[in-house]
Amino acid sequence: MKGAKQIGFTVVSISISLIAAFIPLLFMGGIVGRLFREFSVTLAFAIVVSTVVSLSVTPMICAYFVRSGPSPNATWLDRAVEGGLSRMIRFYDRTLASRSNTAR
């Protein structure tokens, strides 16, 4: 539930924007309009299904697989990747902290 709350607004807003982009295709006339109508309805349905999966199944799968920290028997590649990601997160945190200080 916590993961879905964190990403919920972003996923829903992007999905609505994508569906809105296909709305004009529904109102096209002629033979080409009929082809695009089928295309836009299919994509809109796929976007709706993707949104439901993103808000329900994906956070549950992540909660299931990401239960603990890195394994003690991690390989050198695992340690190198974790170290790089940790440095990147610390750098990002510093840039956010410096930005919030300058905005005041």
What would the keywords be for this entry?
elongated, single chain, 104 residues, mainly alpha
| SS content category | mainly alpha
Q: How far apart are the termini? A: 33 Å
Mean of residue pLDDT?
Answer: 84
Q: Choose one word for the global shape.
A: elongated
Per DSSP, what share of the residues sits in E-state strands of 2 or more residues?
A: under 5%
Using only CA atoms, what is the Rg?
21 Å
Number of E-type strands: 0
Largest sheet: none
Low-pLDDT regions? none
Assign a percent range to the helix content: over 70%
Count of helical regions: 3
Order of helices and strands: HHH
Description of the molecule:
With 104 residues, the chain is mostly helical. Helices cover 86% and strands 0% of the residues. It has helices at residues 2-26, 30-65, 76-103. Helix 1 packs antiparallel against helix 2 (30-65). The longest helix is centred in the middle third of the chain and has 36 residues, at 30-65. The protein is elongated and about 60 Å long. The two termini are 33 Å apart. 0% of the residues are buried. The model has no long low-confidence stretch (mean pLDDT 84).
